[in-house]
Amino acid sequence: MRKLRGSKAALIYDDSLVVILRDNTPNMRSANTWEFPGGCCENSETPWECPEREVKEELDITLNPKMIQFKMEHPSIIDPEDIDYFFVVGITRTDIRSIKFGDEGQEWRYMPIDEFLQHTDVVPEHKERLQLFLDR
Q1: How does the average pLDDT of the chain come out, rounded?
Q2: N or C: at which end does the chain have fewer Cβ atoms within 10 angstroms?
Q3: Number of C-alpha atoms within 13 angstroms, CB side, residue 32?
Q4: Is residue 31 pLDDT above 90, yes or no?
Q5: Res. 102 pLDDT band, cuts 50 70 90
Q6: Where are the alpha helices (DSSP H) in 4-120?
């Protein structure tokens, strides 16, 4: 049976995303690149509970399932035999204004989608998954 490893959530408002600059730690995969909030699932978390918790910890935004615009399962970045999930979640201007950045990553940014897709310092798989959402 395939194991659930983690989930990421692209937080979209208007034509922009909330992204986090990963820590610049030696030997960290994709260090010092922009990524979506999320991470590894804990205990018996569902694919949705993981990014729901991570977004609260990383940005202090409360999500709910009604905000989901897109969901996909894909092979895990950590181990392709396992699975990860990618969500696109619609947020509000109020959510963005209320962000309180946590202690994971260097900074957060509200980045236009076009800039994200063209940026050279982005986790490559995130670009691919976001493009799948945009092309649907």
Answers
A1: 94
A2: N
A3: 4
A4: no
A5: very high
A6: 49-59, 93-97, 113-118
pLDDT of residue 24: 77
* Contact of 7 with 82, CB cutoff 8 Å: no
DSSP 8-state code for residue 4? E
104 pLDDT above the threshold of 90 = no
Nearest CA-CA partner of 110 in 43, 37, 51: 37
Measured distance CA(110)–CA(60) in Å, rounded: 15
Q: What would the two tokens of residue 114 be?
A: 């076009």
Closest CA to 2 of 78, 57, 55: 78
* Alpha carbons 136 and 134: distance in angstroms, whole number: 6
> Per DSSP, what are the bridge partners of residue 11?
18, 89
The residues, ordered by sequence, that sit 6+ positions from 123 with a Cβ below 8 Å of its Cβ are 22, 30, 33, 34, 35, 36
Query: Domain containing 71 — which CATH number?
Result: 3.90.79.10
Structural domain containing residue 113: 4-135
Kindly report the number of other CB atoms within 10 A of residue 70's CB atom: 17
Question: How many domains does one find in the chain?
Answer: 1
